[in-house]
Design a protein that fits this description.
Strand content: 35-45%
CATH class of the largest domain: Mainly Beta
Oligomer: single chain
Number of domains: 5
Largest sheet: 6 strands, mixed
CATH topology of the largest domain: Immunoglobulin-like
Distance between the termini: 136 Å
CATH superfamily of the largest domain: Immunoglobulins
Radius of gyration: 60 Å
Helix content: under 10%
CATH architecture of the largest domain: Sandwich
Shape: elongated
């Protein structure tokens, strides 16, 4: 369109590249274009409708000329824009018709001398090697052409095929005289001409381009030559032509030959053998060691499991939680390769909603069959309760003689949980023997009380603790003085004295006297002197003998929970 530019462009490669085909065409807009292909691209004709008329050029070598009668003859197209071109070809007539802008439709006779025309309806053709193709053709008489036409196969871009049936001369007719061209040969592509020469005085000649593709196939040995598959599975082996071998669950184990045959119409079948090995399927198994758990809201729980390889399964398995699982459900690791002894994994999960979850822990194999497995589990999530424990003290009461020890057992039980924080143990003792307040402190008078452990560490479960109260017996003043002397002279004997009863003390005195008489006196007055009163000191009353109330307290380091228990200790003479 427009002026002062190229108006017609040509491509021979389906539009990959273009060349200017304007040449000597007048510099006016081109509104329509049509190609009369003829028998080949080189002898076709291109027609264009412009703003000043219709012009034509060979499709091979560009040279434009206006379609118009000889000067002085009628039929000159008006000087008007041509908007559309079409070719009419029927009944031996071939016309170029042009639609103009406001001046009607005009036509131009493209054949003005006797001629013939060839048409082939099944061109190009494709056959297998060893087959014969038949091109169905007709030859038409144009402008009363009435001479015989001789036909032969002539080289085009390639030589004709090895078989190209010699044809007898054919007389064209206005309705088209049918004829057949039978061809065949070796595998290849053949681009050749049907060469037609008229017996008229001008020897009118036409070449009609034919294309024949002769193909064949081969069946190579399957690769691999054998496949192994388990009953009920599919091999999934891809060949040049995909072949999937599927067995049923009931297929017996063993080796089976499979004949692969390929055939086509008119050709013998070609075969190859494939060996099918049906063997036990590699698989894996999911096992959850604790399939039922109870937890509290927002408190994590963990399923512990293993993946066991069966029949040599060796592909990684991706783990996940199935539908109906809690909101948070994560496997660690996410991918596990099963082993024969069982590869361990854990699934940690939690929920902010109290309810029971019944779901599956799922495995998806990364093998070619993507083998799935699953294991059903249950998680019961309950509304959270504050942590608590139970303090038990036994026995509830002990009666012991003065100078003897008493031991109480304390059990601290957190139930199914563990202590989240440290717990401190204390004792508080009440008795009338401890003055008007009655508060004896952590131990009875003249006693030293001991916890086997006074603090329970966090993370502990049921813990056993003992509380021991050693009482002290009374010591008279003289005995106390003699014991002091014995400590000075014989420390071991002094200890035995102070810790012994009266009967044993007389024995100890006798023994000591026997040992000390031979020794020189250590003072002028001789003997052992007491205090001014001769009593040898005031002595010790020992642990008072009334009943003591002992209160044990167990307190979390956070202040809660707190528990206490009371027992009684009675000291007797």
């Amino acid at each position: 369109m427009g002026f002062h530019t190229s108006h017609v462009w040509k491509t021979t490669n389906a539009g990959l590249s273009w060349t200017d085909f304007s040449a000597n065409l007048p510099d006016v807009p081109v509104n329509s274009i049509i190609v009369d292909s003829g028998t080949s691209l080189s002898n076709g004709t291109v027609y264009v409708g412009t703003d000043i008329g219709v012009f034509g050029s060979s499709a091979g070598v560009v040279t434009w000329s206006e379609l118009a009668p000889v000067a002085g003859q009628p039929g000159v197209l008006p000087n008007v824009a041509v908007t559309s071109l079409q070719i009419f070809n029927s009944g031996g007539l071939k016309r170029l018709r042009a639609a103009t802008y406001g001046r009607g439709i005009w036509e131009w006779n493209l054949i003005t001398t006797p001629d013939f025309q060839i048409q082939v309806t099944n061109n190009p053709a494709t056959i297998f090697a060893g087959q014969i193709a038949s091109f169905d053709a007709k030859i038409y008489s144009l402008n009363k052409y009435s001479s015989l036409v001789g036909l032969s196969c002539a080289p085009g871009s390639t030589n004709p095929p090895q078989i190209c049936t010699p044809l007898t001369p054919v007389l064209p007719s206005t309705g088209g005289t049918p004829l057949a061209v039978n061809v065949g040969g070796a595998v290849g592509d053949y681009l050749f001409d049907l060469h037609a020469v008229g017996s008229d005085p001008l020897a009118v000649t036409h070449d009609f381009a034919l294309a024949l593709h002769i193909v064949d196939f081969s069946l190579a040995a399957p690769l691999p030559a054998s496949v192994s598959v388990a009953p009920g599975a599919t091999s999934g082996n891809s060949l040049t032509a995909t072949l999937n071998v599927t067995t049923s669950v009931g297929t017996p184990l063993g080796t089976f030959p499979i004949i692969i045959a390929a055939s086509t119409l008119g050709q013998p079948a070609k075969t190859q053998t494939l060996t099918l090995n049906v063997s036990a399927a590699p698989d894996y198994q999911i096992n959850i060691l604790n399939p039922s758990l109870t937890s509290q809201v927002n408190v994590p729980a963990t399923f512990n499991g293993t993946l066991t390889a069966i029949n040599g399964y060796a592909s990684p398995v991706n783990l996940s939680c199935g539908t109906q699982a809690p909101p948070s459900c994560v496997a660690s690791p996410l991918s596990v390769t099963p082993i024969s002894s069982g590869a361990s994994f854990a699934v940690t999960l939690s929920s902010n909603v109290p309810q029971t979850y019944n779901f599956n822990i799922q495995g998806a194999g990364t093998d070619a069959l993507r083998i799935p497995q699953r294991f059903p589990v249950t998680l019961d999530v309950r509304q959270g309760q504050p942590f608590d424990f139970v303090l038990t003290v036994t026995p509830a009461s002990i009666s012991t003689r003065i100078g003897q020890s008493a031991t109480f057992s304390l059990d601290l039980d957190p139930g199914a949980a563990v202590f989240p924080n440290d717990v401190l143990l204390t004792a508080s003792i009440q008795s009338p023997a401890c003055g008007t307040s009655g508060n004896c402190g952590p131990c009875p008078p003249l006693s030293k009380c001991v916890f086997s452990q006074s603090q329970i560490q966090s993370g502990k479960s049921l813990t056993h603790v003992t509380f021991t109260v050693p009482t002290t017996g009374p010591i008279p003043g003289s005995a106390k003085f003699l014991g002091t002397v014995l400590f000075a002279l014989f420390p071991l004997a002094g200890m035995l004295w102070l810790r012994s009863g009266s009967a044993k003390r007389s024995t100890i005195v006798t023994t000591i006297l026997a040992l000390t008489l031979p020794l020189p006196f250590v003072s002028c007055g001789g003997g052992l002197q007491g205090n001014g009163s001769g009593g040898g000191g005031s002595g010790s009353p020992g642990t008072p003998i009334p009943t003591y109330t002992i209160t044990f307290s167990a307190t979390s380091t956070t202040g809660s929970p707190f528990h206490s228990a009371q027992v009684t200790l009675t000291v007797t003479p």
